[in-house]
Amino acid sequence: DPSIPEKLLQSIQDRLLYYRDLGIQEVYSKKGEAVASKSKSKETLEGIRADIGECTRCKLHLKRTHIVFGEGNPKAELMFVGEGPGHDEDVTGRPFVGRAGQLLTKIIEAMKLKRQDVYIANIVKCLRYNALVQLGDGSWERIGRLVRSRYSGEVMSVDSDGRIVPKRVVGWHTSPLAGRQVFRLTYRSAKNAGASRVGIQLTGDHPVLTEKGYVPVEQLTWA
Predict the structure, then answer these.
(1) Which of 48, 63, 117, 200 is the most exposed place for a label (fewest CB within 10 A)?
(2) CA–CA separation, 116 vs 190, rounded Å?
(3) Contact, 156 vs 135, CB < 8 A?
(4) Model pTM score
(5) DSSP structure class, residue 115
């Protein structure tokens, strides 16, 4: 439709590409239904969580351990929403429990509140490898692209005191080994098998996500 502004078309295209990356194959809408259902809806968070169940609606379920739905006061006046769960959240099924979560807890407590007084959730409920990482210059990039390009600049990280600070990436395979064995891990599901097959190098104690959950590399069965 030539009457649709170019910026709106670009926004729609970006949104559809985002859904495609999530594994969603169909997007549809029924005119008028969304507004009508919103005003009459009696849905509760408990009911929505029960309806989701062990959701398999998109491809993200293939790589997750637990759905990270959300927690806190469902009637809270203040809500914190993250982009997506990380390793600690995927293992526990709870939002913001890693270092970033510890920082969030300190922020909430500084506001004279407790975690149970607010509601905490993520936009995406399952761990995904294309999560965004903030770089030292304030821009954002997907972690998969950083790995493929062997990014060597700065990324924003959380230090032992819970402060967000820039830290330089010293190398994707050169962290201190301390006597640990290094393994090369290749995914059977990777596209373009052969010379261009996707592979990474990890120390044996590094956890990787399998169909049975997170398992240290050294405990995997090797073919």
Answers:
(1) 48
(2) 41
(3) yes
(4) 0.48
(5) G
Both tokens assigned to 118: 């607010």
Phi, psi of 138 (to 5 degrees): 95, -10
- For 73, the 3-state DSSP assignment is coil
Q: Hey, what are 35's tokens?
A: 């507004």
Sheet holding 119-122, edge to edge: 70-72, 119-122, 79-82
Instruction: Tell me, rounded to whole angstroms, the distance of Cα 85 from its chain centroid.
Output: 4
Q: What is the pLDDT of residue 113?
A: 95
pLDDT attached to residue 191:
52
DSSP state of 56: -
Instruction: Determine the 3-state secondary structure of 82 from DSSP.
Output: strand
Q: What angle do CA 24, 28, 31 make, to 5 degrees?
A: 155
Chain Cα centroid distance, residue 168: 22
What is the sign of the dihedral through the CA atoms of 147, 150, 155 and 159? Answer: positive
pLDDT at 45 over 80: yes
Q: Tell me which of 66 and 87 has the higher pLDDT.
A: 66
Token readout for 147 is: 């790995």
CA 135 vs CA 15, 138, 139, 141: distances in Å:
23, 5, 5, 7
More confident residue, 23 or 59: 59
Distance between CA atoms of residues 70 and 47, nearest Å = 13
